[in-house]
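Notes on consecutive records. When two proteins share a document, each keeps its own sequence and its own token line. Never mix them. Below: protein one.
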Amino acid sequence: MTAKLPSIVIVGRPNVGKSTLFNRLTGTRRSIVTNEPGITRDRIYGTAHWEGKSFEVVDTGGIVPEDKAGIPGEILRQARVAIENATRVVQVVDGRAGPTPLDQELALLMRRAGKPPILAVNKVDTPKQAEFAAQFYELGDEIFPISAEHGYGVDVLLDALTEEIPVGEAAVAPPDVNIAIIGRPNVGKSTLLNQLVGAERSIVSAEPGTTRDAVDTVVDRNGKSYRFLDTAGIRRKGKTKLIAEKLSVIMARQHLERADIALLVADSAMGITSHDATIASYAEQSGRSVIIVMNKWDLALAAAQEKATDQKKRGGKFVAFNANKLVQDYEPLVRQRLKFLSYAPVVFLSAKTGENIDRLYKLIDRVAEARHKRISTGELNRWLASVDLDKGTSPASREVKIFYITQATTAPPTFVLFTNQLKPLHFSYQRFLENQLRAKFDFTGTPIRFTQRLKKRGSRQRERRAPRKS
């Protein structure tokens, strides 16, 4: 179980530098930073350390209290959840723009919530400019001029924020499994995250591309810790026009690198598209383990049942509707479109209703175990002795002899082959070995890698020419 850290929540109106301050405090580039307002929408979590003290930092979306509709209203709701659990609240304001009515409204909102904010007057780059911060005393008593971009004044702000946090506060254990939720826009990734977490952690909207940052959420379940990353929907390159969208796609692929397992989410009602296959290839190339999640299965079932009923009404051949039969018919279609992910298990679920979420958790555990599976050298070579290597060799190829095999690493499992070959083995022969290995050992959901120790050219000639011992 992970320990609970004190929580410092960053709030403010749009485009005042909240995400820049978050990145400065956490020493990361987790939050997207551009000149476009409204980039951050969900809550973004990170961990910061200062003078031997550890604490949680939460970046919230730009708050516009009077705008209650759509995404702005959801941003406000998400921010309120973070504020309720906050140890301290930092309200970021723009020192160059001066106090605005929206700044005043936000400060009042914080005080009414029982969390009077510390004011970080941002975009103050030099001590001479610090005098402009005085105009913000009408919003609160604790004023700190800072430059989140350049670091000026941030140390003084940190001293104030951590004043009541004990040294050595709650070291957080890393999660057992890191899971990235990837897929096209609007396939239900955020809904799936909320169902896995059991709370409304990500903003869910019918508008595609709602999530822009990767939302980190840690879940403790049955004695295990899972970190879920809800990434931005990965669009086609030709469809990404705004800078925020382009950056979110780049960062989605970067956050994929932080994961152990990728949940590839697709829309069951639409089936696997070419864009789904492209995104799946990103996960496979990165060496992540993969689970294929066919979401909105409830809609696919409803459509199939409606079709069967309509067929009966029209006097056609009646076929009793069978949900299990539909899965059996549907899965081969998924496999056909994602042949390179033949090792990835497929789960049909509804993120909206929660159907089969427990099964998904069981698959995550199984795939995580397979990803870190290590097989002893002795067991591997006993397996190798039982394999008919000639079956994987084409007639035109040189006879393949594998003298020895050993496992070098895990995550993903990587094996070293000592062979008689002068060139690397053809990919088809490696696929043959992989299939034989999977038939013997459980590597569900995880890719397998092979490296090869090649036979040096001329080694036989050197052996023949070697002088005899006198």
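Protein two starts on the next line and is unrelated to protein one.
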Amino acid sequence: MRKVRWGVLGAARIAMNKVIPAMLQGEYTEVAAIASRDRAKAEEAARKLGIAKAYGSYEELLADPEIDAVYNPLPNHLHVPVSIQAAEAGKHVLCEKPIGLDEADVRRLIEARDRTGVLIGEAFMVQTHPQWVRAVELVRAGKIGKLRHAMGSFGYFLKSAENIRNVREFGGGGLMDIGCYPIKTSRMVFGEEPVRVAATLVRDPQFGTDILTSAILEYPSGHCIFTCSTQVAGNQSMQFFGTEGRIEVEVPYNTRPGGRERLRIDDGRDPYGSGITIEELPACDQYTVQGDRFSQAILERTPPPVPLEDSVRNMRVIDAVFRAAETGQWVELDAAARA
């Protein structure tokens, strides 16, 4: 069986600790090279993970004719320029979320994709994780009646000035890093685009990044309400409420590699949980699944799991949340833009 030969751009923590080890287990993925601006760092990463090739620059890796695709986990402000560079080198690209700094940024990437003919997709692992595939399936089947609202939170505590998540010009802050998840998953489960958005946020006086952001997304069928924070005790939750019940994705985002994730399905008969049933999903690693699905898209020349058209829509909502918080007004998302 042919495998897609992957190169990794940079030795980011998410790549080293989560994505690369998972992709090494893939049925359709082969991690063949890693690059860093520091050759010694790339060589150390390659030794640690058993990767055959190490490069001292991104350009060297992109020039390697034996690399079919690249995974881009670089800081947010480098997602689009380096992904364009990779596309122009003829490499398919799986780029970490958020894929750009704003909607216009993603549109630049679409132009590069269309010009070069490669596949480019956003690394939202929730799109292909079996628990989210099942949650969408249950809602579509009417398991909780008519979906009316979603509610979520996502947070951690990080107050280091050196960390890129706290550097505003690098695309840092809570909304970009983790608020993008309840936006993405609510769009997935509703199967719609928000009509308008309201929001409020607090910025760190030192960093200038948003450290506490709350938003209301108004969909044609209902509402999503979420809060994200980078200066709060670690937490994550996502629930979907319908006219006949609710679904809770127990660990929505940082799932356990090889773990069996669970959906809690409540028929709402009482507040004590007597109407709750638990559905356990098969064990998997969400990053293995993500890599394999993208590799299959390359091999079969089909759209990636999260195409850039979806990324534009998600980034448009992120932009709207920022505008709503800054103005204190609802921000409308017109029908033409939502299409």
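For the record: Residues 125 and 191 are 17 Å apart (CA to CA).
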